[in-house]
Specification:
By secondary structure, the chain is mostly helical. The protein has a single domain, classed as Orthogonal Bundle (Farnesyl Diphosphate Synthase), CATH 1.10.600. Helix content is 70%, strand content 1%. It is built from 15 helices and 2 strands. Helix 1 crosses helix 3 and helix 14 runs antiparallel to helix 15. It is globular. The mean pLDDT is 94. Bound molecules: geranylgeranyl diphosphate (GRG). The site of geranylgeranyl diphosphate has 16 residues, from helix 4, helix 8, helix 9 and helix 10.
Length: 295
């Protein structure tokens, strides 16, 4: 299978332009808040979620609404979750995307508010970007609210915090955390891209299943990288999971089995991606590259 390396930079550049265009200016009042939002959002990052959404939408032929507002909305939610996760009351981290975390560069209250504002802005982007097509706007809002809500992203984070406090978290609890804290926000881009493309309900479920497996593979790799890669490469503090006594895939299953599970979930994702309409070779290459990544 070819690598995603050739097409990926063009997708990422589109996302970067969209972020710049669709966020309030840093100078908008209050400038400190908008500067903090842009500080965290425009700090690099792999842009995996928005790229997945753009590539999924483009599989569908014909004229379709611009997928960029939805792609930017996803990155806003993802970045808010990173800002809040890094706060002292959660993971208490100093480094994110190779820079001081938002509460270190600004202060805790500003970081909290910047995260809140990014979360809110995501829904404003969907309402304004797709308001001309109310059924699509409603479906996108429902999908993103569900992925980011109390039974998925936030619920996964809650169980993750609860699991840290006990030494006997089970594989089932770990799966709940991964499915919701990580996979929900990787399913959502594929499903939202499919919605923008006009996919049928069975097609959307194929996209969802692909995202679920990709999300699980991605999280297992994240655990592996935390245990095996250095802080400079990751751009975030390495080895934190083991130091915090966290229940991770690597801790429960060991490194070899974790690699095997990551490969298996990637194969399952690839099988579903092969069922996508149109030319899904970029998405297949991206999925394969994610399991081979080093950051
Ligand atoms: C605070 C509601 C709330 C949720 C926080 C994002 C998160 C949930 C926790 C961060 C820790 C973690 C391991 C999350 C799993 C998802 C994940 C691997 C996030 C990092 O995503 P990348 O690698 O980051 O795509 P970049 O910086 O490249 O965008």
């Amino acid at each position: 299978m070819e690598s995603s390396a050739q097409l990926l930079p063009a997708y990422v550049a589109r996302v970067e332009r969209g972020l710049d265009r669709l966020l309030p200016a840093a100078s908008a009042r209050p400038a400190r808040l908008h500067t903090a939002m842009r500080y965290s959002l425009q700090a690099g990052g792999k842009r995996l979620r928005p790229v997945l959404l753009l590539a999924a939408a483009e599989l569908f032929p014909g004229k379709r609404p611009d997928p960029l507002p939805a792609a930017v909305a996803l990155e806003c939610i993802h970045t808010y979750s990173l800002i809040h996760d890094d706060l002292p009351c959660m993971d208490n981290d100093d480094l994110r995307r190779g820079r001081p975390t938002a509460h270190k560069a600004f202060d805790e209250a500003t970081a909290l508010l910047a995260g809140d504002a990014l979360l809110t802005h995501a829904f404003a982007l969907l309402a304004s970007g797709y308001g001309a097509e109310p059924p699509l706007a409603t479906a996108l809002l429902r999908e993103l609210a569900s992925a980011a809500g109390s039974e998925r992203l936030i619920g996964g984070q809650m169980e993750d915090l609860l699991a840290e406090k006990k030494s006997d978290a089970t594989a089932e609890e770990l799966e709940f955390i991964h499915l919701n804290k990580t996979a929900a926000m990787i399913e959502a881009p594929l499903v939202m891209g499919a919605l923008i493309g006009g996919a049928s309900e069975p097609q959307r479920e194929t996209f969802r299943a692909a995202g679920r497996h990709l999300g699980l593979a991605f999280q297992i790799m994240d655990d592996i990288l935390d245990a095996t890669t250095d802080t400079a490469t990751l751009g975030k503090t390495a080895g934190k999971d083991a130091r915090a006594g966290k229940t991770t895939f690597v801790r429960i299953h060991g490194l070899d089995a974790s690699h095997k599970f990551a490969r298996e979930h990637t194969q399952k994702a690839l099988a579903r991606i092969a069922e996508f309409p149109g030319d899904s070779s970029f998405l297949a290459a991206l999925a394969a590259d994610l399991v081979a990544r080093n950051k």
